[in-house]
Amino acid sequence: MPRSLHFVLIATLWTAPAPADEWPQFRGPDGDGHASQRGLPLSWSETENVVWKAPVPGLGWSSPVIRGDQLWLTTAMDEGHSLRAVCMDAASGQIVHDVEVFHADNPGSVHKKNSHASPTPILEGDRVYVHFGDNGTACLASDGTIVWQTNDLKYAHGHGPAGSPVLYEDLLIASCDGTDVQFVVALDKNTGSVRWKTDRKGAMAYSTPLVIRVGDRDQLVSTGGEWVMAYDPQTGAEIWRARYPSGYSNVPRPVFGHGLVFVASGYDTPWIYAIRPDGTGDVTDTHVAWKLQKGAPRNASPLIVGDELYLVDDQGIASGLDAATGEQRWQKRLPGNYSASPLFADGRIYLTNETGMTTVIAPGRKFKELAANTVDGDTLASLAVAGRAIYLRTNSHLYRIEKP
């Protein structure tokens, strides 16, 4: 069996498919922007295929997560002093729980493309895990009661909290790369106590880790400033690292496929790197399969569909690349600027810009636009999917978009 196919099969078998009514974390069940649901709408507007449009209090750019009839997101009120977890009824959009999880005396400043409530919650069973970076991390029950809280993860965000945590076995793991200190930490998901903490050096970063399976072991891939590292998720021991000089403020979540991990190097001039994850130590000179600058994103995560890697940069330049080689298949400028990560669902790719427009394209070796859909309001949050519905968050509302 070819090595790349071996990697792909292992990555596919590592997690069981999530039920069709679940979207438990940032970028979906496997954290890669793929949805298994079918029968989703191709087109919509303020008057077409909108089941409900519900106001969301405060401001937050976390994506919604869904389990059964509950939809959770986070938001910030009172200029970031009141950090809240909000549960909405997925069928109606009505608010079921609105819980102040933390009250921050000094929430800090945020970048214009950020908020005090940008990390996406995680759902598992009857638990909801929320993360506000330096301002606190907590676990809630599905009835809105707080199970545990901690604000012991101290670091200077620089531009506010952004990276979402990830669950692994009985651990809740987050990358905490501040302007002062940088580390990756695993909390006991049942108590919030620190199980391991691994310091690292670099610049500030805002990325969400990804757990992958390589050979007979799991790896936690975490994009930091100047370096991407892979750790043993059980212990925090470093497995490998690769450097991208002058990288900082990294936002995109890595993706894994074709035996390669794809990471973006951050601001100011981003590159996309394709790295073989089967090395140890510093693999900068030995395991970078290819790298590319043109069209690399600062904010939107990459997307793998079939043999292609899809990117959209901040200025709306969308690219289709051969994932194995980096060869460009096509490139197209889309309207507007982009921060939300792309979604692959029902055989289509959905790309949402910052002014509420979603361009739908067909995957493949040539660019083919299928629809362009606009709603009112700005959006930096990534789409979520559950059942036959797409959920889209703007700066003021949440939409449930579904064919009647």
What does this structure look like?
- By secondary structure, the chain is an all-beta fold.
- The chain has a single domain, classed as YVTN repeat-like/Quinoprotein amine dehydrogenase (Methylamine Dehydrogenase, Chain H).
- The chain is built from one helix and 35 strands.
- The protein has one helix spanning 3-13, and strands at 22-23, 34-35, 50-55, 65-67, 70-77, 82-89, 95-103, 122-124, 127-131, 137-141, 146-150, 166-168, 171-177, 182-188, 194-200, 210-214, 217-223, 227-231, 238-243, 255-257, 260-264, 272-275, 281-282, 288-292, 303-305, 308-312, 317-322, 328-333, 343-345, 348-352, 357-361, 369-374, 384-386, 389-393, 397-401.
- The protein has a five-stranded antiparallel beta sheet with strand order 1-4-5-6-7, with no helix packed on it. It has a five-stranded mixed beta sheet with strand order 2-29-30-31-32, with no helix packed on it.
Features:
five-stranded mixed beta sheet; five-stranded antiparallel beta sheet; disordered N terminus; mainly beta; Methylamine Dehydrogenase, Chain H; 404 residues
Gist of the model:
With 404 residues, the chain is an all-beta fold. The chain is 3% helix and 43% strand.
Topology, element by element:
Blueprint: H1 3-13, E1 22-23, E2 34-35, E3 50-55, E4 65-67, E5 70-77, E6 82-89, E7 95-103, E8 122-124, E9 127-131, E10 137-141, E11 146-150, E12 166-168, E13 171-177, E14 182-188, E15 194-200, E16 210-214, E17 217-223, E18 227-231, E19 238-243, E20 255-257, E21 260-264, E22 272-275, E23 281-282, E24 288-292, E25 303-305, E26 308-312, E27 317-322, E28 328-333, E29 343-345, E30 348-352, E31 357-361, E32 369-374, E33 384-386, E34 389-393, E35 397-401
Parallel strand pairs: 2-29, 19-23
Antiparallel strand pairs: 1-4, 3-35, 4-5, 5-6, 6-7, 8-9, 9-10, 10-11, 12-13, 13-14, 14-15, 16-17, 17-18, 18-19, 20-21, 21-22, 22-24, 25-26, 26-27, 27-28, 29-30, 30-31, 31-32, 33-34, 34-35
